[in-house]
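Researcher: Next entry in the queue.
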Amino acid sequence: MHIKVDERKVAFDEIKDFEECALCGTAAVISPVGKIDYDSDKSIVFPSGMEKSGKTFAKLRETMVDIQTGKIEAPEGWIYKIK
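Model: Structure for this entry, 83 residues:
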């Protein structure tokens, strides 16, 4: 997908500047985050995640599902056959 990736710890103060936010896992693939509540009365809202995924995460999820279902070939080393 040619997405630039920067793998690092993220400071909580940075999250408010994100365009999109999502969580991932083996069963959920990628699920959009619409809102993060913190303290007792504060929230960070991601409009792109309130109803559905934003453009980037929607494409990433589609690609991952296509790999899982065999519609497109997985990158080298992503899939292991269990005997």
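Model: The two ends are 31 Å apart (CA to CA).
Researcher: Noted, moving on.
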